[in-house]
Specification:
alpha/beta; Rossmann fold; 231 residues; globular; eight-stranded mixed sheet; 21% strand
Length: 231
């Protein structure tokens, strides 16, 4: 925990992410309207499935500060096999792609229109270690049985029952020293309840609450502890 706090949470080194942030600025100016296929809890800001790309970036993408946390976890712990549930426009995916050539990211997106834009963004950033799969999580995950991941980032469904179901899948497919990251743990009452249930799971000994992120790890042999971290 001491290493995690110093090297990941409190680390203020900028790192090589300027290209990602330049892309974010471009997307914030993009007024193109797309029709979003939302298989999760939907948006609390929009009653329609038609949304501006600029609004998706503003309300649904990880911030630079949060993205740097994702990048540092990947780099500091030399993680190699990463799974993301919920690509969106791909900014979080870009951070997860890390700096090492050994990193491989599999990302799943349920909306074909959003996935197209994300793929274009990966190409613009010259990211070649991301494999994007388009479809419902339940369907795509059946093809990943038997695969073990060093990091599983859950950011695609904000309802209680699906979150708990995908968590169960994640625990069974997580490496011994790996991490599960649950996004938006304070987004709604359902997500708060999901986080409370998940962090109490006896198969995981470490849970860290960063307000937006909930980070979990098995860390066998360590006494079970829950931490609230400010950053």
């Amino acid at each position: 925990m001491y290493r995690f706090y110093l090297d990941v949470v409190r680390n203020r080194k900028k790192g090589k992410v300027q290209e990602i942030e330049n892309l974010r600025k471009q997307l914030k100016k993009n007024k193109t309207i797309i029709e979003v296929t939302d298989l999760g809890a939907g948006s609390r800001r929009n009653s329609t499935n038609k949304r501006k790309i600029a609004d998706i970036v503003k309300h649904a993408s990880v911030s630079e500060k949060q993205g740097r946390i994702l990048r540092r976890i990947v780099d500091v712990y030399a993680l190699e096999n990463i799974l993301e549930l919920g690509t969106s426009l791909g900014l979080g995916t870009a951070y997860l792609s890390g700096q090492s050539s050994n990193v491989k990211v599999t990302t799943i997106e349920g909306c074909p229109e959003t996935a197209k834009i994300a793929q274009n963004n990966f190409e613009q950033l010259s990211i070649q270690n991301v494999v994007q799969k388009v479809g419902a999580f339940d369907e795509v995950l059946t093809h990943l049985d038997g695969v073990t991941f060093d990091l599983i980032y859950m950011d695609g469904n904000h309802r209680l029952a699906p979150t708990l179901k995908y968590f169960e899948w994640a625990v069974e497919h997580l490496s011994e020293e790996g991490f599960i990251i649950l996004d938006d743990i304070n987004w709604s009452k359902e997500m708060i309840e999901a986080w409370e249930r998940i962090k109490a799971d006896k198969r995981l000994n470490v849970s860290m609450d960063l307000f937006r992120f909930g980070i979990l790890s098995k860390r066998e042999g360590q006494r079970k502890q829950n931490f609230v971290l400010k950053y």
